[in-house]
Design goal:
Number of strands: 8
CATH topology of the largest domain: Rossmann fold
Number of domains: 2
Organism: Paenibacillus polymyxa (Bacillus polymyxa)
Order of helices and strands: HHEHEHEHEHEHEHEHHEHH
Enzyme class: transferase
Pathway: Pyrimidine metabolism; UMP biosynthesis via de novo pathway; (S)-dihydroorotate from bicarbonate: step 2/3
CATH superfamily of the largest domain: Aspartate/ornithine carbamoyltransferase
Helix content: 25-40%
Radius of gyration: 19 Å
Protein name: Aspartate carbamoyltransferase
CATH architecture of the largest domain: 3-Layer(aba) Sandwich
Distance between the termini: 9 Å
Strand order of the largest sheet: 2-1-3-4
Pfam families: OTCace, OTCace_N
Length: about 300
């Protein structure tokens, strides 16, 4: 069966900025269906092959995709740049084209450089799913975040969501912003001056920490030390003091406020360890919700 360019575009998931509210809602609804299934294995993608191509390390996201693909009965190929010919100089494009030539039905890709994924998607003939590209987008993380919020509050319209931390380097912040605003949620950012993304200021306001903590959803971001220029973070203790969700600050949140974080967590830097484990925390449920979300996304990409 030949897949047309139009079908490829519809089955791929490169970001949420261009995805319609109806499409996002359809994925959330399908994830709810998969979560409600009592059987762990429902092989609707039997005989389909998915390649998880991670040119940037991510244990949690890769395992989540792999779990989702295997629960749907797909055959899974895992690729890690650290143990591949990319280290010998082979290009990302050639690697994807090689796996495409071998007959994969969809590719999940995680990349450090932003913008490369869009170029790849225009050159290959299999659906591609973005597992994180640079500081551009991380659509499945945002989808599982929306799913977690919807499970807690019933709907997203009118929710006040504060995203706090390293906005500049965060693809999670961008995908959440684009998606949440389509549903009528009110997004605010809070960050030190040198971690603010000027390009996003036109879409959501930057507010002081005290105001950010008045939200229905307080989403803390990981301080991405590996992406920082030298000197960007003077000390972890100072960051925690000014922008961390400490036990003291968490104690003053509204009773109905939930705490989220895309993980992995720098405990006792952007969020105190006791807060991670608190009743208001949804951090581990977020991880659990990633599997049905990615089942819905991979089914959308590969189902005949």
């Amino acid at each position: 069966m030949i897949t047309t360019a139009s079908q490829l575009k519809e089955r791929s998931l490169l970001g949420l900025k261009e995805l319609s509210r109806n499409e996002i809602e359809s994925i959330l609804d399908r994830a709810h269906y998969w979560e409600s299934q009592p059987e762990k294995l429902v092989p609707v993608l039997q005989s389909r092959f998915a390649a998880n191509m991670f040119f940037e390390n991510s244990t949690r996201t890769r395992f989540s995709f792999e779990m989702a693909e295997k629960r749907l009965g797909a055959q899974v190929l895992n690729f890690s740049a650290a143990a591949s010919s990319v280290e010998k100089g082979e290009s990302i494009y050639d690697t994807v084209r090689t796996l495409e030539s071998m007959g994969i039905d969809a590719g999940v890709i995680r990349l450090k450089p932003a913008g490369v994924l869009q170029e790849l998607a225009e050159k290959v003939s299999v659906p591609l799913v973005n597992a994180g590209d640079g500081n551009n987008e991380h659509p499945t993380q945002a989808l599982l975040d929306l799913y977690t919020m919807r499970k807690t509050f019933g709907e997203l319209k009118g929710l006040r969501v504060s995203i706090i931390g390293d906005i500049l380097h965060s693809r999670v912040a961008r995908s959440n912003l684009w998606a949440l605003q389509k549903f009528g949620a009110k997004v605010s950012f809070c960050a030190p001056d040198n971690m603010q993304a000027p390009d996003l200021a036109a879409y959501a306001p930057y507010v002081p920490m005290q105001e950010a903590l008045q939200a229905d959803v307080v989403m803390m971001l990981r301080v991405q030390l590996e992406r920082h220029a030298e000197g960007m973070l003077r000390s972890a203790d100072e960051y925690r003091e000014q922008y961390g969700l400490t036990e003291k600050r968490a104690a003053n949140l509204k009773p109905g406020t939930i705490i989220m974080h895309p993980a992995p967590v720098n405990r006792n830097v952007e969020i105190d360890s006791a807060v991670v484990e608190s009743e208001q925390s949804r951090i581990f449920p977020q991880m659990a919700n990633g599997v049905p979300i990615r089942m819905a996304v991979m089914e959308r990409a590969m189902k005949l």
